Amino acid sequence: MTTSSPFTLRLFEPDIGSEECQAVLRVLESGMLSMGAMVETFEDAFARFLGVRHAIAVSSATAALHLAHHVMGTGTEDEVIVPSLTFVATASSVVYTGATPIFADIIGEQDLNIDPDDVAHRITSRTRGIVVVHYAGYPVDMDRIMHLADQHGLYVVEDASHAPGSDYHGKPLGTIGHVGCFSFYTNKNMTTAEGGMVVTNDDNLAQRMRRMRSHGMTTVTWDRIRGHAYSYDVTDLGFNYRIDEMRAALGIVQLNRLPASNKRRRILMENYLTGLSQNCMIVVPFGLGVENVSYHICPVLLTDGMMRESVMTDLRNRGVQTSIHYPPVHLFSLYRERYGCRSGMLPITEDVTQRELTLPLYPSMCEADVEHVLDALEKSLTTVATPKGI
Ligand SMILES: Cc1ncc(COP(=O)(O)O)c(C=O)c1O
C-alpha cells in the first residue's frame, strides 16, 4: 500500500525490502517479541561495525541521549553545552536531567557544525559536558572538542543520529566522545521505524546504561529465559527505554545495507554538488568530505532567507518535497521562556537557519531524480527572484 502524496519526489524514502519484511515476520512467528536474541545480535553487530566495546539498543536516540546524561550524574546545578542547529531532542535530553542547556554557535556557512571556539567561551564552573551533533553526517572538529573536554574535566556526548558510517581521522563517529548516540527513526540512514543505539568504550558507563534502559533491573527477560538468572534486584530508578525484537531484526538487515546505501548517497551527492556549483543563488556547505560521510541530508543555503518559503511552495508545485534542518532550538518558546534565550544570541546559527533548505536525498533516488530536483530548483529560484511584471 502506498500513501498518496502531492510529491513526485519526496524528501526521503526508507529503503525497506523483502529481507526486512521476512526478518520481522520470523520474529512475530517466533513468539519472542521483546528483549530476546535479536536485540543482542543487533547490539553485537552494531558494536562490531563501529569497533566499539559496547552498544546498547534503545527505543530512540532521545532515550540514548537521556541515558548518557543520566549516567554521567548530570543534574540541576549543571550546564551542558549543545548546538542550537539540531533536532530539539539534543537539548531536551539535557533538560530531562534538570541541567541547563547552554547553546553554542556554529562555525559558518561552509561548516554548519558547532564551533569549538564558541564552546570554549561558554565553559563555566558549572559546565559538566558538551554535546556535539555531526550535522548531515559531517564530522565536528573532535580533536578540538576532546582537547577542551580534557582541559576542563568535561564529558562529551556525540549525537551521531545523522552519522552512522561517517569517520573522523579514520575513527567512526560516535566512538570518539565518552558516549555516542544514534537514531534509527524512519528518515535516518538506517531505520527500525523508531529506535536508537547508545555506544561507549567505558565498561562502567555501559553497565549502568544497560541497567537504566530496563527499570534499573539487574537481569532481563533473556537472561531468565536462558536460565542465567531466576530473579532480579532493582538497584536504580531506571526507565523503560527498551527496543523490541521486531525492530532489532529490522536493524540487523538495515545495518547490512548501510555501507552500500551510504555509497549510493555519496554518488547522488556528487551529482548534486556538480549541478549546484553552477547556481550562484545557492551556497552548498561542507562539500563532499575527504573521509567516509553518511550524507544523511542534502542541505543548501539560499543567498536570501526572505525567499525560502516561496521557493519551498514553488518546488512543492513542481512535485519536489523540501524541508528545513532545523529551526533554531534556542528560539523555541520553551527555551525563550525557561532559559531567557533571545534572537541575536547565536548570529551565525540564526542567519543559516533562515536560509537553509533540505533537498531530497535517499539511496533509491536515481540520477534523473537529482536532475529533476536541480532543474526544479533553478526554475523556482528564477520564478521567485524575478519581480512580478518583468
Ligand atoms: C540530530 C538528532 N538528534 C536526535 C534525534 C532524535 O532521534 P529519535 O527520534 O530517535 O529520538 C534526531 C532525530 O530526528 C536527530 O536528527
Indicate the topology:
Elements lengths: L17 H13 L6 H14 L3 E5 L2 H11 L7 E5 L5 H7 L4 E5 L1 E3 L2 E4 L1 H6 L5 E7 L8 H11 L2 E5 L7 E2 L2 E2 L6 E5 L12 E5 L2 H11 L7 H5 L19 H32 L5 E2 L14 E5 L5 H10 L15 H7 L7 H9 E4 L7 H19 L5
Parallel strand pairs: 2-3, 2-6, 6-7, 7-10
Antiparallel strand pairs: 1-11, 4-5, 8-9, 10-11, 12-13, 13-14
Pyridoxal-5'-phosphate binds next to helix 3 and helix 4.
Structure characterization notes:
This protein is of the alpha/beta class. It folds into 2 domains: 18-253, Aspartate Aminotransferase, domain 2; 259-385, Alpha-Beta Complex (Aspartate Aminotransferase, domain 1), CATH 3.90.1150. It contains 13 helices and 14 strands. It has helices at 18-30, 37-50, 61-71, 89-95, 116-121, 142-152, 203-213, 221-225, 245-276, 308-317, 333-339, 347-355, 367-385; strands at 54-58, 79-83, 100-104, 106-108, 111-114, 127-133, 155-159, 167-168, 171-172, 179-183, 196-200, 282-283, 298-302, 356-359. The strands form 4 sheets. Strands 1-11-10-7-6-2-3 form a 7-stranded mixed β-sheet, sandwiched between helices. β8 (167-168) and β9 (171-172) form a beta hairpin. α10 crosses α13. The protein is globular, with a radius of gyration of 22 Å. It starts with 17 loop residues before the first helix and ends in a 5-residue tail after the last helix. Residues 60-62, 86-87, 89-90, 133, 159, 161-162, 183, 185, 196 line the site of pyridoxal-5'-phosphate (PLP).
